[in-house]
Amino acid sequence: MEPRTRPGRAVPVPAAAHRALGKRKSPAGQAWEGRGNGPRRAAGARLGSARLGSARLVRHGPGTMKPRGYRFLLLLLFIQKAVTALEKKNIISKLGDNATLSCIYNEKKPLQLKNLRVYWQIADDSYQEKCSVVHALISGQDDNSNQCIHFKDRTQLFWDRLENGDFSLLLLNVSQSDRHTYKCIVQEKTELPKVIHQAEVVLSLAVSYSQPILSGPIRNSDSTGEEVTFYCRSGNGYPKPNVYWINKVNNSLLSPSKTDIITHDDGTFSVFSTLKVKAASNMQIECSIENEMLQENLSANYTQQKKVSGSGTESDGNPEKKGRGAQAAGIIGIVSVIGLLTGLICCLWRRRSSNLASYKAPA
């Protein structure tokens, strides 16, 4: 007597017969699965008709049950991940300045702030224990209940831009400890909360170096051919600089003898570099400090030009000393002219006095 079954319920099948059914193929070479109501295509070929939350269980082998919509769920998650792919940006800020961390949702659709959650976090997982929330906006209101102390009163959103999808964060008074990768996550509350936008911003810091100071040997016409030393220093910059020594006579690079970089308590650097070269009758040396991140180049120059003939004087190319010399020469000239005029006036006065003394009135 054949066993009676309820309509739509799978009939128990021996293992061997089950394996035979599992191997049965359609004319197109596609796998089929045996069910109580006839053969159907495998769940992988029916993803388009599956619905979230309505996955059926299909017997794939003796004693095993797997969700029919499992692969569809994975596909759905993959599609969502692709749609909300991370937007990555890099920005550079100077210490003490304000930095804007960009997070812009470009989809042109109306946004209701009451249905949104915006989270700014530090992307580094190892830092999550120290700081989990940089800034949060929940249902159109700032939520600072879980904000890190380090960012207290230093973050704000642009309220006039939120409804247009601009969730950028303004970070005030940037310090060395703010160098992180920040992550912006925007969620929209529907039947199930979903992420509609993500962005990452790498915040790098930079500080301009001071104007370099270059010192060299005392100008001496007898030092030609001897080894002379130049010193160049600059400080309080970030990150570490590149130092270049240049022979301006032929624009060739010179190798420094030594370069020391010192780290200060505030994280900035100072650099001291030394150059040793053979002295020449015409020396033009330049020290250049490059801040690669800010694309800044600061330089100082040393110039010495010596005359081998003529009066034997030398010009060191120092405009300050040249100006002082010209000023001194002018003063000496003026004093000389005044002295000559004074002497001439005295002579004329004496002459006139002697003429008056020798004059006698007629009897």
How far apart, in Å, are the first and last alpha carbons? 189 Å
C-alpha geometry: elongated
Largest sheet: 6 strands, mixed
Class derived from helix and strand content: alpha+beta
Number of helices: 3
The percent range for helix content is 10-25%
Number of strands: 22
Low-confidence stretches: 1-83, 309-322
Which range does the strand content fall in?
25-35%
Instruction: Trace the largest sheet across and list its strands.
Output: 5-13-12-7-8-9
Give the CATH architecture of one domain: Sandwich
The CATH class label of one domain is Mainly Beta
User: In angstroms, what is the radius of gyration?
Assistant: 43 Å
CATH superfamily of one domain: Immunoglobulins
CATH fold description of one domain? Immunoglobulin-like
Summarize the structure.
The chain has 363 residues and is of the alpha+beta class. Helix content is 17%, strand content 35%.
Distinctive features:
363 residues; alpha+beta; Immunoglobulin-like; 6-stranded mixed sheet; 5-stranded antiparallel sheet; 3 helices; 22 strands; 17% helix; elongated; membrane; Ig-like_dom
Detailed description of the structure:
The protein is α+β, with helices and mostly antiparallel strands and 363 residues long. Among the domains are: 85-206, Immunoglobulins (Immunoglobulin-like); 213-318, Immunoglobulin-like (Sandwich), CATH 2.60.40. It is 17% helix and 35% strand. The chain is built from three helices and 22 strands. The protein has helices spanning 15-23, 70-83, 319-358, and strands at 32-33, 40-41, 57-61, 64-67, 87-94, 99-101, 116-122, 135-138, 141-142, 155-157, 169-171, 181-188, 194-206, 213-215, 227-237, 242-247, 252-254, 258-263, 269-278, 282-291, 296-306, 314-315. A six-stranded mixed sheet has the order 5-13-12-7-8-9, with no helix packed on it. The longest helix has 40 residues, at 319-358. The relative contact order is 0.09.
